[in-house]
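User: Second chain of the day. Same drill as before.
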Amino acid sequence: QVQLVESGGGLVQAGGSLRLSCAASGSIFSINAMGWYRQAPGKQRELVAAITSGGNSRYADSVKGRFTISRDNAKNTVYLQMNSLKPEDTAVYYCNAYITNDGRRLKDYWGQGTQVTVSS
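Assistant: Same format as last time:
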């Protein structure tokens, strides 16, 4: 079994910062791309940022220049540093990872989600 466990969400005032973490554990052979998605009430889930195993990253236009994705391959962990937060960043944030398990099957996995609330 493979699990993704997120942490770091919470309530912050506009202009503040939060750092999300997501650690993968279990029967992992290798981890490919990792990313963060978010879903606000009444809206579809959207990609926020993603990073390849080699460190190449991409961002949604709405967060460019404010959010930074990074990963620690030794810890099987991906991070999302969120600065200059805005009320429109309020959402449940989900970690996603494409993982080859020790049975050599590639599958995408999701975390349970962590709430980020930005007050104005």
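Residues 11 and 117 are 5 Å apart (CA to CA).

User: Great, on to the next one.
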